[in-house]
Amino acid sequence: MAAKGAHITQNIETRPSIFEVVAADSLNATFYPALKRVANFLASIKPATFGPLLRYYDEVFLVFNWAVQSYYLRYKGGSLSEVFYGLTRTSLRTNRFDQNGQRWSLALLVIAPYLYRKLEAKITQWKEDYENGRVISPEKVRLTQIVPYLKACFECVRLVHYVSYLAGAVPTHSPVLRALNLSLTYQQEEEQSWTFQELLSGRVEPAKLLSSALLRSLELSAFFLQFIEWWQNEANMGDLAKLPTPDAPPGDLNGEKYRGKCPLCLQRWEIATAVSVSGYVYCYRCIVAHLQKESKCPVTGYPASIGDLIRVFEGDDD
């Protein structure tokens, strides 16, 4: 009887642990910065080829994330990170994940983060303009002051949900899922769609084999991206600092051509300012005016923005 009771308890246990749901949230937040590091690496190797990928990274990631998440929500019942941890979404009312829940989940997983990142970039720009004495509207000033408080309030609400879920007081760990009236539960075990014997005998359809391989590679990539995020963590930077210092990159012809002068006005620098992505030094006014029109280094053509500028202090500076 005790063995049967234990067996029944195992079957009806559908509530994931707090560690599983937090890990799924953490993995989902890893995709954007980890893939951006890959885009930065590609753009640094071949700026002409992969420069547009970095410049329009938000839009590229939006399309990619939409395609991936819509597939997993429709056919697997959860986001990529949730399926990776064996979780699926279900309605608190009907115990099903219908099309309406899928549409709202897709909007909050894909579109809402994209819009928030755009808003955050605008707020950062408005804040810099305000601090530099540029004229901006009072509405924008108030927005730069309000949004950080709203973000802090949301994080507090999410923390309360985590604690309440851990205590068993609420059925879902996330305020977003609660607003959608959804919760997370364990996925049902799926039977293997094909065996290696069927594969060797040629009885497996190529489309089914390709689809399975793509899904497995995508889920494996999710783990790889999480590893990249861990590798870049500040806790591991101390070990990286022990590596031998590589040789400095060689100069080029343009470096000799523009030695001691701004490549734009061809005069000696006034408030010498370097573009971090290329290393070339310009007058502050020259390079700011250029980057406001074209988001690239004038000499190398590397993608750049005002945030990539670094003040250079010469020996005679006060």
UniProtKB/TrEMBL annotation:
Residue ranges constituting the Pex N-terminal domain according to the UniProt record: 25-233
Biological process (GO), any one: protein monoubiquitination
Keywords from the named record: Membrane, Metal-binding, Peroxisome, Protein transport, Transmembrane, Transmembrane helix, Transport, Zinc, Zinc-finger
Metabolic or biological pathway: Protein modification; protein ubiquitination
Xref: InterPro entries: PEX12, Pex_N, Znf_RING/FYVE/PHD
Molecular function via GO: ubiquitin-protein transferase activity; zinc ion binding
Compartments (UniProt record): Peroxisome membrane
GO cellular component: peroxisomal importomer complex; peroxisomal membrane
Transmembrane segments: none
Protein's membrane topology: Multi-pass membrane protein
Highest rank taxon of the organism: Eukaryota
Principal subcellular localisation of the protein: membrane
CDD domains documented for this protein: mRING_PEX12 (cd16451)
Family the UniProt entry places it in: Belongs to the pex2/pex10/pex12 family.
Described function: Component of a retrotranslocation channel required for peroxisome organization by mediating export of the PEX5 receptor from peroxisomes to the cytosol, thereby promoting PEX5 recycling.
Protein name as annotated: Peroxisome assembly protein 12
Native species: Culex quinquefasciatus (Southern house mosquito)
Taxonomic lineage: Eukaryota, Metazoa, Ecdysozoa, Arthropoda, Hexapoda
